Amino acid sequence: MKNLLVALDLTQEEIEIFKSIPDVALTVKKQSEVTADDVKDKHIIVGNINPNLLESAANLEFLQLNSAGYDNYIKKISDKTVLCSSVGAFSPAVSEHMLAMTFSLIRHFHMYRDKQNNKDWSDLGKIISVENSTITVLGLGDIGKSYAKKVKAIGASCVIGVKRNISEKPEYIDELYTLDDFEKAVKKADIVVNVLPSTPQTVNLFDKIHFDMMKNGAYFINVGRGDAVDENALVQAVKDGKLSGAALDVTRHEPLDKNSPIWSEPRILLTPHVAGWFFLQETKNRIVKISSDNVRAFVTGQSMRNVVEH
C-alpha cells in the first residue's frame, strides 16, 4: 500500500478518480494547506507543494507536478525519486493566451483601451498582420508547437522554430534552429515569442545585444520564464522604438516590483502569470488525467508519461 497525497483543489468526482487507483491510501489537501507533517509518510505526492517541504518527505518515491516546469524541484528530491511533469496539459490555454497577446500587440488593443479610458478618439497609426509575417518561436514543446500551428494556419509566411536539439521538422515549421543559432532566428522575425524553460543557457538570453539585433519595429512576447529577459534592456528597446511593443506573462520577480518601469510603459502589455494555471477547465481536466494515469502506472509497474530525467 502506497500513501498518496494529492495537493490539488479537487471536486468529489475528481477525488473518486484517484480513489479508484488500487493499493493507495489517499489524502487530499489544497496545496496552500500542505504541511511537513502531511508529507513525511507519503510515498507519492501529486501537486506543486512548497519545494522546501520535500525535505520532510523521507519516504517519497514519486512526485507528480501539476506544472510543465520542474526547475524548482530538481534539487529538492532524491535522484531515486521518480519525477513527472504535466506537459501536455497547458497548450490550449497558453497558446491561445499567446495568440491573444499577438493580436493585441500588433493591433494596439491595449493602448486603445488606454485611449478609451481617457475618452481619446484618435488612432495609433500603422499596424502589421500575422498573415505574411515571419514569427520565431523559441521553445517547441507542446505549447510552442500549438502556437506555431495556430499562426501558420492564420497565414504567417514563415514560422521559425528554435529548440535545444534538432529533430524532425514539423510541417508547420518553415525553418528550425538550435539555441546555438538563436541569433539567425531572431534577426529576421517580425514577432519573436519565447516559451523556453529556465536553464543556465536561457538566463538573460534576451539582453540589449539581442534586442539590438532584432528587426526594427519587431514585437516580443515572453510566456516562458522571466529570467530569460533583461527587463531594463527590454523597456529601453521599447522606449527607443527599436521594438514596436512587447507582451509579458512572466517577469523576473513575481509579483512584479511596484517600482518597475514595465508598469508605466504603454507599449508593454502585462498579464500576471495567468496564461496557464487552472483558469481553463480543460487544463485541470488534463492535469487530473495525466496525474491519475501516472499514479496508476507507478503502482502497477507500467510505463509513465512525462518522466523527467534528473
UniProtKB/TrEMBL annotation:
This protein's record includes keyword NAD: yes
InterPro entries in UniProt: D-isomer_2_OHA_DH_cat_dom (IPR006139), D-isomer_DH_NAD-bd (IPR006140), NAD(P)-bd_dom_sf (IPR036291)
SUPFAM superfamilies with a match to the protein in the record: Formate/glycerate dehydrogenase catalytic domain-like, NAD(P)-binding Rossmann-fold domains
Keyword check for Zinc: no
Key words, A-Z: NAD, Oxidoreductase
Family: Belongs to the D-isomer specific 2-hydroxyacid dehydrogenase family.
UniProt protein name: D-2-hydroxyacid dehydrogenase
